[in-house]
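Thread amino acids onto this structure.
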């Protein structure tokens, strides 16, 4: 392959990567919106359950504490699994977008004669700090949700069985 054909091939690959990255960014934005909506929905549903417990004061309150407790727990488990999957997908999409940006940058460097073409031997790896920051964000969000869920479960029992 002569130099002109190689340059055209790299230009074509670069154009494809730009298009792929654009679509990837849209998917990432969609997953972020989904995670935000699920987190908000989780808090609203839990607040509605707690509001129902506080407002409705049945005569045999402590005997049936397990009903709102079970409802809150099952809603929490469903939301937790869903949000965990959305966050996992968001993380993987961002990881692959970072790799695509590195690939795009390498192709540009090669087109301008700045990078060696032996890069195929070594896999591209995104910035470790970015990856750790994303994992920390996911861990904090999931920990906050678990703490909120524990608080809600405790509240379901204590509001119904408190001695006044």
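Threaded sequence (164 positions):
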């Amino acid at each position: 392959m002569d130099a002109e054909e190689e340059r055209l091939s790299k230009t074509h690959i670069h154009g494809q990567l730009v298009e792929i990255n654009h679509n990837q960014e849209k998917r990432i934005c969609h997953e972020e919106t989904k995670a935000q909506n699920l987190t908000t929905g989780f808090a609203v549903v839990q607040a509605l359950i707690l509001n129902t417990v506080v407002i409705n004061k049945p005569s045999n309150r402590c005997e049936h504490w397990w009903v709102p407790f079970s409802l809150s727990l099952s809603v929490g488990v469903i939301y937790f699994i869903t949000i965990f999957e959305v966050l996992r997908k968001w993380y993987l999409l961002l990881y692959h977008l970072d790799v695509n940006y590195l690939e795009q940058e390498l192709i540009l460097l090669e087109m301008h004669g700045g990078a060696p073409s032996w890069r195929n031997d070594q896999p591209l790896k995104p910035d470790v700090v970015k990856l750790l920051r994303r994992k920390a964000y996911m861990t904090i969000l999931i920990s906050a949700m678990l703490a909120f869920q524990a608080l809600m479960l405790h509240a379901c029992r204590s509001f119904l069985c408190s001695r006044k």
